[in-house]
């Protein structure tokens, strides 16, 4: 994780590009709705927010393994256990997506308004989404890095895996927008936690076999 943070700091253009991507997509939403005098309905606000976060996650996490050269991966193989590599990559991507998600939510709420009535529940849901996106896409990035056309393969493998998680995230965030009681979202939140634990466990168990290939 320390190596990834140092590399990100040295290549600040990449992080600036991701922040620019978030800002530009929010601005496009603004000129499409608010600037034309139309008020954005809560369901559309919710759907657009998760679309922005989803594509931001794909762009941010895709470089996790795709930027590693073959020689560097061989060097890591001689130094550390593969489980340490995948857990460090997931941890770094979780922190990165939490930061990007927080910035995106702040910009989105500032430009298009904040219809969320239960902000703590929405932020908790967003944190679970960041963890789920990071763990799923990190493993997919490791798989795609072993093949040609890796960026295309990343999208093909990643989106179907995230659809069940995305449906739960949209449901919980809609409950937060409507201000429903926490009990209405409890089962969905527990399911999200279970999905994140399953993806993390699968990554921990299967990545060593991928690492040796």
Automatic annotation (TrEMBL):
<feature type="transmembrane region" description="Helical">
    <location>
        <begin position="86"/>
        <end position="110"/>
    </location>
</feature>
<keyword id="KW-1133">Transmembrane helix</keyword>
<comment type="similarity">
    <text>Belongs to the CcmB/CycW/HelB family.</text>
</comment>
<feature type="transmembrane region" description="Helical">
    <location>
        <begin position="152"/>
        <end position="170"/>
    </location>
</feature>
<feature type="transmembrane region" description="Helical">
    <location>
        <begin position="190"/>
        <end position="211"/>
    </location>
</feature>
<feature type="transmembrane region" description="Helical">
    <location>
        <begin position="12"/>
        <end position="35"/>
    </location>
</feature>
<dbReference type="InterPro" id="IPR003544">
    <property type="entry name" value="Cyt_c_biogenesis_CcmB"/>
</dbReference>
<protein>
    <submittedName>
        <fullName>Heme exporter protein CcmB</fullName>
    </submittedName>
</protein>
<feature type="transmembrane region" description="Helical">
    <location>
        <begin position="122"/>
        <end position="145"/>
    </location>
</feature>
<keyword id="KW-0812">Transmembrane</keyword>
<keyword id="KW-0472">Membrane</keyword>
<dbReference type="Pfam" id="PF03379">
    <property type="entry name" value="CcmB"/>
</dbReference>
<feature type="transmembrane region" description="Helical">
    <location>
        <begin position="47"/>
        <end position="66"/>
    </location>
</feature>
